[in-house]
Amino acid sequence: KIEKLIELDKKHYLHPTTVPKSFIENGPKIIFHEGQGIRVTDIKGDTYIDGASMLWNVNLGHGNKELAQAAYDQMSTLAYSSSFYGYSNEKAVRLAEKVVSIAPGDLSAIFFTSGGSESNDTAFKLARFYWDLKGRSTKKKILSISRSYHGATVSAGTATGIDAFHSFAGSRDADMVRAKSHLTNCELGDKNDPNYEGCIRDVIEKEGAETIAALILEPIQGAGGVHVSPDGYLKAVKALCEENDILMISDEVICGFGRTGKMFGVDNWDVVPDIMSVAKGITSGYAQLGGVLVNKEIRDTIVQYDQILGHGFTYSGHPTACSVGLKTIEILERDNILDNVNNMEKELKKGFDYLTDKHRYFTKSRAVGLLAGFELQQDRDLDVPFSESVKPASFVVDQCFKHKLILRAADFEKGKDIVAIAPPLIINKEEISEMINIIDAAVTKFNKTIK
Ligand code: PLP
């Protein structure tokens, strides 16, 4: 039965973000069957710790019966309803009110989507639409940051700062510009090079503020390798945006709903963006849902429009997804999940200290809540990476997998060998220790491969 499934998978299933040729040769690495808490079991019966919450989304862990019940109850009552043409449904209304009530500042309305990419495309469209309504229709460009990940649709994919994604099949949204991330010295590079990505201020000056509608960033870059904004950075970016009438979009698709120990990533730095995109954690991955929150000024401007708003998805405001979203937030609040995240951050950091002391290549560990990562470097004191052929992050992630821990490597960028860790937010102290022990064994094995 398992062999048959593997054959069928190879034959008929085109997988996202996978090397197709190697997939056809090797088949799926794992076929998941069930999950409970922080663990998932495959069809062979092997159980793994899900140290990545799958795709940073299964925040309340696997097998949560309350979430399943919320879906079942809503499906049995009204599985689906349109939210087009003046229609609405109770769960979407209640979730809109709830999300707005926990969102920072004056974010005061939400447009529902079915996921993160749709949310970011929607954010770009709403930003451009807002400026049109304000009579400033030259403001069309979206400014994004290198190493960012914003999704796979054409616009979100173009905004993404990881080349493999933004150049896929020539996908391009023409009105996109990119600036260097906070991690790179803006002065490096040849400013006459057409591919030079300057820092944010440079790009605004070069393009002209009157051409830029919005800037998008993740408060902590996830897929790019868990890069944390330095203190003061987000506030400075917000001020720069305000100075230039550029809307600030915070992509909270990973950071939102408790991942960083605060409800939203920007809350760590007390910054209120003009627009915020969410997905993933809003339903803990149990249903496909995303949304774009806009501030009062944008909301009040949009609602004056007296023609059809030509944008929406069949599953915008899906009642079943919204019901699961409401239950997710209820559990986050009722079970004080954020407190657990903050406590487990401390445990994780203790584990990182231990690994830093023990392993000479282990370095640059970081954790904000349970969004965490570490790097492997040839010489951590002199900041020297391993040569490209070594691939230490992938090696360690493979070893962890052998020891039944799922993590994720972020080693697409030359000289950066990062391992990302993002376990479900319900993880406990013993389970953190289990993860650290496995990473310890994996790094020990890696050390032995280096002469
Ligand atoms: N934004 C961020 C920060 C993400 O990490 C992701 C997905 O990983 C997306 C957007 C895209 O979300 P989706 O895959 O649901 O379209």
From TrEMBL:
Keywords: Aminotransferase, Pyridoxal phosphate, Transferase. PROSITE patterns: AA_TRANSFER_CLASS_3. InterPro entries: Aminotrans_3, Aminotrans_3_PPA_site, PyrdxlP-dep_Trfase, PyrdxlP-dep_Trfase_major, PyrdxlP-dep_Trfase_small. GO terms for molecular function: pyridoxal phosphate binding; transaminase activity. GO terms for cellular component: cytosol. It comes from the Bacteria. The keyword Ribonucleoprotein does not apply. The keyword Transferase applies. Belongs to the class-III pyridoxal-phosphate-dependent aminotransferase family. PANTHER family: AMINOTRANSFERASE, AMINOTRANSFERASE CLASS-III. This is Aspartate aminotransferase family protein. It comes from Peribacillus castrilensis.
